[in-house]
Amino acid sequence: MITMENVCKSYKVAKRNAGFLEACKALFSREYEEIHALDNVSFTIRDGEMVGYIGPNGAGKSSTIKILSGILTPDSGTCLIDGRVPWKDRIRHVKEIGVVFGQRSQLWWDVPVIDSFELLKDIYSIPEQVYRSNLEELTDLLNLGELLRSPARQLSLGQRMRCEIAASLLHSPKILFLDEPTIGLDAVSKLAVRDFIKKQNETHGTTVILTTHDMQDIEALTNRIILIGKGRILMDGTINDIKQNDLTIDETVAQLYRSYEI
């Protein structure tokens, strides 16, 4: 079970005006602006749930995922995932989670994908039999057979994302964090990724937290949605709670954003 209670996170961002003179001034006197990325964020996610975590750019979605995965430490509040505090027990925690960032890669750019997988096997200390079984299953379900011997830099975006998802699941994690997993993918690749995520949840009971701006992903994969805006949880309910018959899911969410002024 995932529990966050009153989690806060702020950043200091340097600001200056344009121009060489302003750049020189900033060397001696720098102005900062404090950004409240998360402001008393609280929610609970049960084992095996698939949850859509939505909000506009800068709402705090990625900061939440980074705290849940142990990358960031919050300023205050508590977070427990199956009894673990992510940022305090990172080695044990990362063995139980998989993370896919649509704009970040865990594959080594210039080596064949299978070499990256072998290295991840050693990093996660995956037993040989478990690794071979998972690799065979993922290769079959994600159609990776022709991709494993190619360097990551030679793959299309859709091919690379399929490999990224496989890499995040080699160690059989109980929880999967997906941050924009279908960004930039064509229609065929999106459908393939969605279908695979569904099967992973149904077959292995994997808990999935999905953050995306693609509302078709949310509608296809999740029922429960958590809306965050300006660092605050604004709504926690089902798609049916907000869906209007005469509007598409994109129009419904856009109207929701306007109603909350985010």
Topology as H/E string?
EHEEHEHEHHHEHEHEEHH
Task: Bin the helical content.
Answer: 25-40%
Q: Span between N and C termini?
A: 29 Å
Could you tell me the mean pLDDT? 89
Strand order of the largest sheet: 5-6-7-3-8-9
In CATH, the topology is named: Rossmann fold
Largest sheet: 6 strands, mixed
Low-confidence stretches: none
Which class in CATH terms? Alpha Beta
* Bulk shape: globular
Q: How many separate structural domains? A: 1
> How many DSSP helices?
10
Give the number of DSSP strands.
9
Classified in CATH, the superfamily is P-loop containing nucleotide triphosphate hydrolases
CATH architecture designation: 3-Layer(aba) Sandwich
Computed over alpha carbons, the radius of gyration is 20 Å
Going by helix content, strand content and strand pairing, the class is: alpha/beta
Strand portion = 25-35%
Layout of SSEs?
Layout: E1 2-15, H1 20-28, E2 31-45, E3 50-54, H2 61-68, E4 76-81, H3 90-94, E5 97-101, H4 113-123, H5 128-141, H6 157-169, E6 175-179, H7 187-204, E7 207-211, H8 215-221, E8 224-229, E9 232-238, H9 239-242, H10 249-260
Parallel strand pairs: 3-7, 3-8, 5-6, 6-7
Antiparallel strand pairs: 1-2, 1-4, 8-9
Summarize the structure.
Helix content is 39%, strand content 26%. The chain has ten helices and nine strands. The strands form two sheets. A six-stranded mixed sheet has the order 5-6-7-3-8-9, with helices on both faces. Strands 2-1-4 form a three-stranded antiparallel sheet.
